[in-house]
Write the structure tokens for this entry.
Amino acid sequence: MWTAPLALIGRNTLGLIRYASGLSELSAKTAYWTFIAPFKGRGLKGRSAVHQAVLVGYSAVPIVSVISFFIGMVLAFQGAYQLEKLGATYFVAALVGVSMTRELGPLITAVVVAGRSGSAFAAEIGTMKVSEEIDALEVMGLNSVKYLVVPKYVAMVVMMPCLTLLSDMAGIVGGAVFGAGQLDQSFSLYATATSEALVMKDISTGLVKSVVFGAVITTVGCYEGFSVRGGAEGVGKATTASVVVSIFSVIVADLLFTALFYYTS
């Protein structure tokens, strides 16, 4: 009676362990080719990393900006609704600024990038796996992690902080537009209130998070691509799994970093 549930739990546990082990192995290989191999004269070519940076960063600017702008407006609206009861609408700017820089800026950026780039990584590598192009690379003596993963990894950890800063600014501007339109606050007053509330740790916290989020998204997306089985259907499943696992992992990492920064402040 109990064998089936226990067997299911056992299979899921072993699958989780294998998945975590695979991610750890890929992370270790990526770290080697990114930080150690260049000092041994075996680093990647910068052109491929720049190409990936354009795909990951520049192409995501419009969607990140628009989403963050409206999130900033929504946050200001909700904050004003509550603070107006206390006669403290002046602090709406502080609420939006701190929330965007510490939490929502890096988190919104990570979710957007996971949906755009994380899925693209999984689909690209998965298609190469199905068509045996990765095997061809290995036969030619080319390391697949170095040529397929590292450029994406470098581009992601460089561009994620840039996109996060853009998200922060867009969200704050969105809040300022709401403040000017609904709270009769001038842009200069809103900017003053924001600058009074923000400290460097707020911004640096979000930037550190964004780097970690970028590494997580890249590792998960590429690992799902390398794990593809079963042709085109497998590529579709890997693409979906990369987005789901990336967003889940990003939220867990965000929780851990938030707790860390909170208890060490």
Summary: The CA atoms of residues 84 and 122 lie 47 Å apart.
